[in-house]
Structure prediction request, 398 residues.
Amino acid sequence: MIIKILYIHYQRFERDGSHVHTREFEAAFRSLCEAKGTGFTVVAPPLVSTAPTSPGLLGRLRRRLARYYLREIKTLLVQLWRAMKERRMLARERPDIVLTRFNGESLSILWACRWLSIPVVIEINAPDRVELSKHYRLLPGLTSLFTNHHALNLADGAFAVSDQLARPLRQQDRTGKPIMTIPNGVDIERFRPDRSGTEVRGNYGIAEDRIVIGFVGSFAPWHGLDMLVSAFSEVLRRNPRTHLLLVGQASVEWQTLLDRIRAPELSPHITASGFVPSEQIPSYLAAMDIAVLPNSAHYCSPLKLFEYLAMARPTVAVATAPVAAILKDGEEGLLFRQGDVEGLTHALLRLSADKALRTKLGATARRRMEQDYTWRQNAERVYTLLEQAYRWAQSHRG
Prediction:
């Protein structure tokens, strides 16, 4: 029987999307544990509210030297040092089971749990970091240590945010450990369709009769904002009543895009808000008539998708497998093939011209979130997995 659960993660930056995930999950899981009478403790680093800064001269020198076989050696030493500290922490806390986010390097808590024979479950949010080989010279013997498969070998169970991540783990496991797919969730009390976006529109001078097409998230290269701007340019040409609202912090890598949206023919019709604190995001979504997910990694379960749908925003989204598993095309939103600018443009034109369809899709999407994808339901699925992993550990590890 599980008496106490310890949740450990290493998310530090408030502006990182993973912070939203850990914060929302923690709140929902704590409430669930209180209802069950289960102890729940969170161990995490202090939160940094500012954006990560560019490294100085010394930092750039360290990064350059790390390319020459030093990165993994340093990571291994840091993990060993941290495992010693975490072993002492576990001895004090004495949890029955540990839940942790595995980020490709966080082996320390897995080692500490094994040393003390404490069952541990890992959460997987990304595939193995194969892109490191493009920037660093890696030692083959150490590289395998930092894979999802090795982390699963050390753990007693696992879950991932999509089948694309969970399926390889199931195929590699030969022990019968519990491995589940548990997509992200949303706070349906905070993301409500009845919220008003009038103030946000007023702050940016967006007229109430404009049909606002919106995006929320970081301006990461894989988010497809350049494709969205291209599609919007055509939509604007055919429907001058449309407006594009981009919510998120743009880095210097996006200077070309920023210059593009400042062009005279586009700038009056595009608003880039910059960084917005997460607690204000519902008001920005309320200011939108159509929400867009222009691109996503093939394995991602994007938080913004759940937030769009919970707000009853009719959503146009890229048809990756995890997205298509959440959003039914033609019922809760419209999907388009990845990289298909014409498909994205067509979907935006269709929704911008049909208010009744926007209302229908949004209402259906909201009901789906209420029924299947609240953070409470996410927490319940994780709790069930922890119980299964605890039983597996008792029978297989003694």
About this structure: The longest strand covers residues 97-102. The CA atoms of residues 185 and 375 lie 5 Å apart. The longest helix spans residues 70-93. Confidence is low (pLDDT under 50) at residues 130-136.
